[in-house]
UniProtKB/TrEMBL annotation:
The lineage of its organism: Bacteria, Pseudomonadati, Pseudomonadota, Alphaproteobacteria, Hyphomicrobiales. One of its GO terms (molecular function) is nucleotide binding. The keyword Methyltransferase does not apply. The keyword Nucleotide-binding applies. InterPro entries: CobW (IPR012824), CobW-likC_sf (IPR036627), CobW-like_C (IPR011629), CobW/HypB/UreG_nucleotide-bd (IPR003495), P-loop_NTPase (IPR027417), Zinc-reg_GTPase_activator (IPR051316). This is CobW. Residues 9-207 form the CobW/HypB/UreG nucleotide-binding domain. Residues 266-342 form the CobW C-terminal domain. Zinc chaperone that directly transfers zinc cofactor to target proteins, thereby activating them. Zinc is transferred from the CXCC motif in the GTPase domain to the zinc binding site in target proteins in a process requiring GTP hydrolysis. Belongs to the SIMIBI class G3E GTPase family. ZNG1 subfamily. CDD domains: CobW-like. GO terms for biological process: cobalamin biosynthetic process. It comes from the Bacteria. Keywords: Chaperone, Hydrolase, Nucleotide-binding.
Amino acid sequence: MTVVAKVPCSIVTGFLGAGKTTLVRNILQNGAGRRLAVIVNEFGDVGIDGEILKGCGIESCNEESIVELSNGCICCTVADDFVPALEGLLALDNPPEHILIETSGLALPKPLVQAFNWPAIASRVTVDGVIAVVDGAAVAAGRFADDPDALAAQRAEDTSLDHDNPLEEVFEDQLLCADLIVLNKADLMTADEREKVAAEIKAAVPRAVKVVETTGGQLDPKVLLGLGAAAETDLAARPSHHDNEAEHDHDDFDTFILDIPSLDAPEGLLERIRTAADAHDILRIKGFAEINGKPMRLLIQGVGSRLQHQFDRPWHPEEPRQGRLVVIGQKGLDRDAIAQAIGTV
Ligand SMILES: Nc1nc2c(ncn2[C@@H]2O[C@H](COP(=O)(O)OP(=O)(O)OP(=O)(O)O)[C@@H](O)[C@H]2O)c(=O)[nH]1
């Protein structure tokens, strides 16, 4: 009897805008020697991350090995989307030797790890490791804890995990499931902040989990892949805020899409986005804009009020040159006011 080795899969989790796609892109660029495939999931309906990966010009990024699941959070569509997507990749003529799974920033990784025990796939794949990417600058700015010191004190007295901040719950669920924590955006932190954030992370995770610091997700694939964690056999060590819920929903968060008119120059739009992100506490905004006379589409990426933009690839002749932004925030986002502030079609 021949025993076929299970295909290792790395789950890349991390809050909105932490740098997951950037890290996955680096692995694709540096992961030579191993046939990789990617399953990429987004909270919004428009697959920006898949587009970024496909637009990156890396030879190994062929269309069939990048599967986009943009039909809600992957943790809630395991049966309908995730397991069939994995099966599809395993059925390719040239199946991948390692699969990267990038979850949405709001997904809980544990239901995904659990899915690896499903009979349809259990004998064929294993979770090589859960990699949690952390936006160090956001943690340093206190985004995930109203008062980290008070919280640490409270933890010391009360070991239950529950509290009311939905951002923090998602963030902690991602850390608590991790085999490796990537402390990203080191360039945006002072040495003191880096130390403080690393200590905060360690305090939040009861197991000994390695924390590696980086900028732009630049880590050797040898550090990230081949962890051999078999996380699906080790679920008890990965507590979640949602362990007692039959189904997790994302009611705490809102998302919508804005169509953006063609522009002569990007500066005005970028300024309006920055102002709107601050005024309305937008967590994440990303998409593409059309700049008149430019053959390339402009990729716009906002995390909080920090914005980046670059021309990433030429518009394809068959695609509509329609600017479009996905906006994500906590429940109660004022869509009309944001649309007006940013200027939509
Ligand atoms: N300054 C700085 N920016 C970074 C770093 N890593 C990523 N970014 C930027 O942060 C933004 C978000 O990065 P992504 O890789 O798209 O983050 P993500 O976690 O995939 O985002 P979602 O899928 O929307 O949750 C982009 O503008 C990146 O260029 C870093 O180390 N430093």
